Inverse folding.
């Protein structure tokens, strides 16, 4: 109930915190009253207003899903307006799972994650959701999984194409490539087992992250929350960290593929294009 959440939040505000963060595997399902997982806009905006009214600077949330975002773009606009993100220019980060956009993999592994959309629409749902989030000053921190046991290079190509589209749309967000982990160690994915397509996807993710980090460094430097020493430290960590990762991947590529460079590997998959996912029909709510 809202009153219980207000009570808990006020305790933190009274002790000096200036913002409220809501934790849930899927915050946009708060108050959901249907089996299609279409967000309950009234319940969510009432929650945001009720917490913002306590005096918090903004209300954030740890997790959303692209399907809920794409199902109701107006909801994200209203949340951002309540937070005054459009007025202040403040960006808030949230975690979302992409995992894969290959249609047959989505059907097999993602279950109801795509609702209210069909599994075949997932690739378009992710692209549209990313666009909506960025338009409303939300910074996605997304994950994908590389090395599913039944994954083929053609499956990987779908997600490679998505990363290429992210670059074209100037997507502002990070994509963390995670290697598939099974309960059994022998069935888990390891760097030494990456094929060319999987390496290309891993590289594309970090290429995206390097681009985005370079773009947001000026924002960090303008942030009044951090003092000059912390800004210098964070700048150094971000630059050194991304440089070290790309350097490691270049070395890994040579080890895996007989001395070949990443450019030689990724060129093959950058020029190949998977079948485009059907355009989604955004729910009119």
């Amino acid at each position: 109930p809202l009153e219980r959440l207000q009570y808990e939040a006020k305790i933190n505000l009274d002790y000096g915190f200036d913002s409220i963060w809501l934790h849930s595997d899927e915050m946009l399902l708060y108050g959901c009253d249907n089996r299609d997982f279409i967000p309950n806009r009234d319940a969510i905006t009432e929650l945001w207003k009720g917490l913002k009214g306590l005096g918090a600077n903004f209300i954030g949330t740890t997790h959303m899903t692209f399907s809920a975002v794409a199902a109701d773009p107006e909801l994200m606009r209203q949340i951002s307006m309540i937070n005054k993100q459009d007025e202040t220019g403040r960006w808030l980060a949230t975690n979302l799972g992409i995992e894969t956009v290959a249609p047959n993999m989505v059907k097999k592994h993602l279950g109801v994650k795509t609702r209210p959309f069909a599994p075949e629409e997932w690739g378009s749902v992710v692209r549209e959701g990313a666009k909506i989030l960025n338009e409303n000053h939300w910074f996605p921190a997304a994950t994908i999984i590389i090395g599913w046991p039944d994954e083929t290079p053609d499956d990987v190509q779908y997600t490679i194409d998505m990363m290429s589209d992210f670059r074209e749309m100037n997507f502002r967000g990070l994509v963390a490539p995670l290697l598939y982990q099974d309960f059994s160690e022998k069935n888990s994915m390891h760097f030494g087992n990456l094929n060319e397509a999987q390496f290309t996807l891993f590289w594309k993710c970090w290429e995206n992250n390097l681009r985005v980090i370079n773009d947001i460094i000026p924002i960090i430097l303008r942030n009044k929350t951090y003092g000059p020493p912390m800004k210098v430290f964070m700048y150094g960590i971000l630059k050194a960290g991304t440089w070290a990762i790309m350097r490691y991947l270049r070395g890994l590529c040579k080890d895996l593929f007989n001395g070949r460079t990443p450019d030689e590997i990724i060129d093959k998959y950058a020029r190949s294009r998977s079948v485009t996912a059907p355009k989604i029909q955004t729910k009119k709510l």
User: Anything to note?
Assistant: The chain has one domain: 2-270. The CA atoms of residues 20 and 59 lie 5 Å apart.
